[in-house]
Design a protein that fits this description.
The chain is of the alpha/beta class and about 375 residues long. It has helices at about 40-50, 55-70, 75-85, 95-105, 110-150, 180-185, 205-215, 225-230, 260-265, 290, 300-305, 355-360; strands at about 1-5, 5, 10-15, 20-25, 35, 160, 190-195, 220, 240, 245, 250-255, 270-275, 280, 305-310, 315-320, 330-335, 340-345, 345-350. It has twelve helices and 18 strands. α6 (about 180-185) links the parallel β6 and β7.
């Protein structure tokens, strides 16, 4: 996608052919900084610290992390160590486990002398596959927006609500939830996006709003608790969110607060769609509430906020009383019964095992 007219991806292989660079999402929206990774531990720390985040991008970063590990030491022990280290960086997003499984499956049978080239080849393929998948998600989701647009008066936009950041910053390019929006905008359809701020890390306000703005998509940032009010007053035509893991029966795990948006959408008859690439489907589990591990992150993410002061300084301030305990659950699970449809690279599917297994028999 574009940043002020210039094309960027969220992660890329440098011209030297081995080091990997990514946009440092911790510094957005106030600073645009590129971070260079030269080792597997650096890739692991990028995932752990949320320099990169979003399930598809985490998977791609982990794949490049294995390639960096093989460049340093292509032994079996080094491969095992890299995969183990990267696996524990984030527990919820299934793409991480999927990507590492892909890398291990390709590399383990090979002699050490062939592993470096093969590792970079597969990591690059995973990145390119993500771009292609997201483009197809965009194509299928575009039809939903186009259908609503035909019912609008001339000049009236289709209003879309999203939560957290499922944009191109969360993937390699295009995004999942935003891919249909970008396609619609680029084709001249009038769209407007309600952007949840998404506490506690403010990925909506700091990332989604940033990328939509730099691409020229009309949008408005709202407090997380505003979505239900907008739906009651018919100011939302559809909601599209991303996901970090979808179970075999269509339960959706996404950024904390998604479940509440789904409940509000259900109560107000607003279509609620989830955009996802197939590597995000976990066919090994059926009950998202009971089986998906919910990451609990540091209290500081809730207790503090970072922003730019009036005189231009970037400062972090505490907003919670000293001594007050803080709980920071990073994700919640939206039951399949609240999901209108799953927007995948193979079409818009019903959130149920039969539909997912039929569309993705190679993964079921």
């Amino acid at each position: 996608m574009k940043v002020d007219g210039r094309h960027f991806r969220s992660i890329w292989l440098e011209p030297d052919g081995w080091s990997v660079s990514a946009i440092d999402q911790r510094r957005l929206p106030h600073e645009f900084v590129v971070a260079r990774m030269t080792s597997a531990p650096e890739a692991g720390e990028a995932i752990r610290s949320m320099l990169v985040r979003g399930a598809p991008l985490i998977g791609a970063t982990a794949a490049y992390g294995v390639a960096l590990a093989m460049r340093a030491d292509a032994s079996d022990a080094a491969l095992d160590l890299a995969c183990e280290m990267l696996t524990v960086t984030r527990p919820t997003a299934i793409n991480l486990k999927w990507a590492l499984g892909q890398m291990a499956r390709i590399l383990r049978p090979l002699p050490a002398s062939e592993r470096v080239e093969a590792a970079y080849k597969r990591a690059n393929e995973i990145a390119e596959e993500d771009v292609a998948i997201n483009r197809e998600i965009g194509r299928h989701g575009l039809a939903l927006i186009e259908a609503i647009a035909t019912t609008r008066a001339p000049g009236e936009p289709v209003n879309i609500l999203t939560h957290c950041n499922a944009g191109w910053l969360a993937t390699v390019d295009w995004g999942t939830a935003t891919a249909p929006i970008y396609l619609a905008h680029d084709r001249g359809l009038k769209v407007h996006v309600w952007v949840d701020e998404t506490r506690p890390r403010n990925q909506g306000a700091s990332l989604t709003a940033w990328e939509l703005g730099h691409h020229g998509v009309p949008h408005t940032v709202i407090a997380d608790n505003t979505g239900g009010h907008l739906m009651q007053h018919r100011m939302v035509d559809l909601a599209i969110v991303g996901t970090d893991r979808v179970t075999a029966n269509g339960d959706v795990c996404n950024k904390i607060g998604t479940y509440l948006k789904a409940l509000a959408a259900h109560d107000n008859s607003v279509p609620f769609y989830v955009a996802l690439p197939s590597p995000t489907i976990d066919f090994s589990i059926d009950d998202g509430i009971r089986q998906i591990p919910i990451e609990q992150r540091a209290a500081e993410e809730v207790a503090t906020m970072t922003g730019r002061t009036a005189d231009g300084r970037i400062e972090t301030v505490r907003v919670v009383p000293a001594g007050s305990p803080v709980a920071n659950y990073a994700f919640d699970v939206t039951p399949a019964r609240l999901v209108t449809g799953l927007i995948t690279e193979r079409g818009v599917l019903r959130p149920e095992r039969a539909a997912l297994a039929s569309a993705f028999p190679d993964r079921a």
